[in-house]
Design a protein that fits this description.
By secondary structure, this protein is α/β, with parallel strands linked by helices. Helices cover about 50% and strands about 10% of the residues. The chain contains twelve helices and six strands.
């Protein structure tokens, strides 16, 4: 398997799609929010990216597989990943894992041994009303006590997500029991770009998505009957856009807070990837291609690494 990872707006999908075309691959998404149907603009699915200039389409997996309002989790992802992986290899094709959710990527590369942690309503009632800062401190203490690596700030940008993280840390010792033997061998490619370019791309992409109707997307989800708190749970775009739609933020406040949050999120993604390296996963870092010609050279470089 080949894994292509990187922070948001780094151009991972472009590389994965061109590579898949060359080697007969299919892409498995490693994005914790692209699993949700009708959450398209805010999660950056950009499904047109899977269509090549010659009109051919690259198959993709684990996108649009569950309904918004639900809380898809790591246990489910690991199960669904293995199903997709077996289907792809069964067809004699090459699986390419591509995304920016470091926890999902690490869980399948290191074969985390997980059990599903049920809802603990008593715990949730007890924690309700605590601030995000208080919940984050509580989670950090639990992680330190348990030696846990299952959550970082990327996962806890809302109180609901922090409470779920605490629930998991308290609810199952097996979440902290991981096998260090990799059952799936993977060449890991990391896409890097300068801080300045990353910030410029994030800001430009945010403006493009707002112009493309990201606010209307959230309004439609709310009109379906999805609760605001459930959309806020997903964080980033859906947190701030929902707060704007329900009147908690002005438009300008929403845009400013969201832009800052996405920049912070990208920084935390890189922190997670560096942590993966410290935990024993070797990542071949490459610069983001700046043109189609550079993209083709990058694909050639990856193919040469496969052949080594």
């Amino acid at each position: 398997m080949i894994t292509i990872l990187g922070p948001t707006a780094s151009g991972k999908t472009d590389i994965a799609v061109r590579l898949a075309k060359r080697i007969g691959g299919e892409i498995i998404s490693a994005d914790s929010r692209q699993v949700y149907r009708r959450m398209d603009i805010g999660t950056g699915k950009d499904l047109d990216d899977y269509v090549l200039p010659d009109g051919s389409t690259i198959p993709y997996h684990l996108i649009n597989i569950t309904e918004p309002g639900t809380k898809y989790n790591l246990f489910q992802y690991q199960r669904d990943f293995h199903k997709a992986y077996e289907e792809i290899t069964g067809r004699g094709h090459y699986p390419i894992l591509c995304g920016g959710t470091g926890l999902y990527i690490e869980a399948v590369l290191k074969d985390y041994q997980l059990s599903e942690v049920p809802v603990n309503q008593e715990l949730r009632d007890r924690l309700k009303g605590k601030s995000l800062e208080e919940l984050t401190d509580m989670l950090q203490m639990l992680k330190k006590r348990n030696g846990g690596v299952m959550h970082n700030k990327t996962d806890i940008d809302t109180s609901q997500r922090a409470i779920r993280a605490i629930e998991i840390e308290l609810g199952s010792e097996t979440y902290n029991s991981v096998t260090l033997q990799q059952n799936i061998s993977s060449l890991i490619i990391g896409v890097s770009l300068s801080r300045e370019l990353r910030r410029e791309r994030i800001s430009r992409r945010l403006r493009t998505r707002l112009e493309a109707g990201m606010v209307d997307e959230v309004k439609k989800l709310l009109d379906e009957g999805i609760k605001p708190d459930d959309l806020i749970y997903y964080g980033l775009e859906y947190k701030y856009l929902t707060q704007y739609v329900i009147g908690e933020l002005t438009y300008d406040e929403m845009v400013k807070k969201l832009e800052i949050a996405i920049h912070q999120f990208a920084k935390r993604q890189m922190t997670w990837f560096r942590g993966m390296e410290r935990r024993g996963l070797h990542i071949h870092w490459i610069e983001r291609p700046k043109s189609d010609n550079e993209l083709e050279r990058t694909v050639e470089e990856i193919i040469s690494l496969i052949d080594e």
